[in-house]
Amino acid sequence: MEGCTANEHVRKVAVVGAGLVGALEACFLAQRGMQVDVYDIRPDIREMEHVPGRSINLAMSVRALAALKDIELDEHIKQEYGIPMHARMIHNKEGGTYGISYGKENQCIYSVGRRYVNEILLDKGDTFSNITYHFNHKLVRADLDKPQLTFKRTDIPDEDEIVVNPDLVIGCDGAYSAVRREMMRRPRFNYSQEYIPHAYMELSVPPTPAGDFAMAENYLHIWPRGQFMMIALPNQDQSFTLTLFMPTATFNSITDEASLLQFFRENFCDSISLIGKENLVRDYFSNPALPLVSVKCFPYNVGSTAVILGDAAHAMVPFYGQGMNCGMEDCLVLNQQIDSCSSIGDALEEYSKFRNPDAEAMCDLAMYNYIEMRDLVNKKSFLVRKKLDNLLHWLLPSWWVPLYTSVTFSRMRYHKCIENRRWQDEALSRISGVGGLVSIVVVYLLARHKATSQALTDISNIALKYMTNLKITKM
């Protein structure tokens, strides 16, 4: 890597943000021999008793693991730390449960702690002599053309501003990115954000008195209720983190203990004993209901001097479990572009063009999956389609890849995952009138030939004629 042409004029890099993506990207750059300075507005989280902010646990899958493999942390997550979740466990309103597997028997996603993953990435950075961390540094100004960054110490208010002049700025500072804010001042920078009408609140299911998990641990638990839902992921201390998603208006309508308990009795009756009545009341009224935002923008780079990754470029709602995975995969994609391009400017330009359609596709998929998780999983049509997808994937593993499988258990480009799903929907709609073995044969032919619209019509007509002839023969 150190001999790549794109590295020639980049010796000093400033990474803004020491979260999951920033800490990982710093390691990737250090492997190339660059001097990397990482700046973060927060103190060093490894020295904090409590880290404020977003969800404490996350679902890690193939894309993040592929990125961690490049710095030799993937096996630690899979074999030693992460809790495998092989299926969704659906909790109905009456308190009953049933499982829906994610994919094949050996496929799973891993429940991991955000703080823990961040800390091991920072620790990995400490093993590189060419990475330096600068905590308690708030970015107050940036000239991304020079580039030049101006920071203010948050722990020493009276200290003079700190001005740095790196060769390259990489913004990994989250959904409310200060680096992206500077990009927004530039002409032809496209930006949009959307706050959905729902908010989220974190609750907790403690371990049992014996210190065990209170629910089956190798599942992502879901309480789907139409316009709202609750999910639970297992933690390494045998607790579960519960996240309640519902319209802000619904949160606001619950104003006292009586209305809270009545709401939970009507909608999440089995969870009250798991959480504990006192814990539920205390946590609900002490924890804020936090907003959910989706961010899209383009381009991601400013010439050869700056680029944004992760939530700074594409914040998404959390319903596909791909925010971390997508952000970490950004680091892989940028790495590949630096390897293949002749200059850092070309690499950043190609990265921006290549990654944008995938990131925006994932933002859209995350919105879609909220509808699926809160509502569709309760519908028979969803379960039938899930079983059909799994059957066809088993019969034709290279040709028929279900949407969730392509997103979560492969590195297929996100926008290709959507195109693949559209093709599958069209194929199934065309053969919906064809039954039994003939249906499977038609699907097989469609998959083998990635059929055009005309081919779909032709094959469907052949199958229908066959079925008609079969009926006549039987008469």
List key phrases describing it.
alpha/beta; disordered C terminus; 475 residues; 19 strands; single chain; globular
Structure description:
The chain is globular. It has helices at residues 20-31, 62-69, 74-81, 114-126, 178-183, 248-253, 257-267, 269-275, 277-286, 311-314, 323-340, 344-374, 380-395, 403-408, 414-430, 436-449, 453-474, and strands at residues 12-16, 35-39, 57-60, 83-85, 87-91, 97-101, 109-113, 131-134, 137-143, 148-153, 162-164, 168-171, 190-205, 219-224, 229-234, 240-247, 290-298, 301-302, 306-308. It is an alpha/beta fold and 475 residues long. It has a seven-stranded mixed β-sheet. It starts with 11 loop residues before the first strand and ends with a helix. Helices cover 44% and strands 22% of the residues. It has 17 helices and 19 strands. A hairpin with a 5-residue loop joins strand 15 and strand 16 (240-247). Residues 451-456 and 462-475 have low confidence and may be disordered.
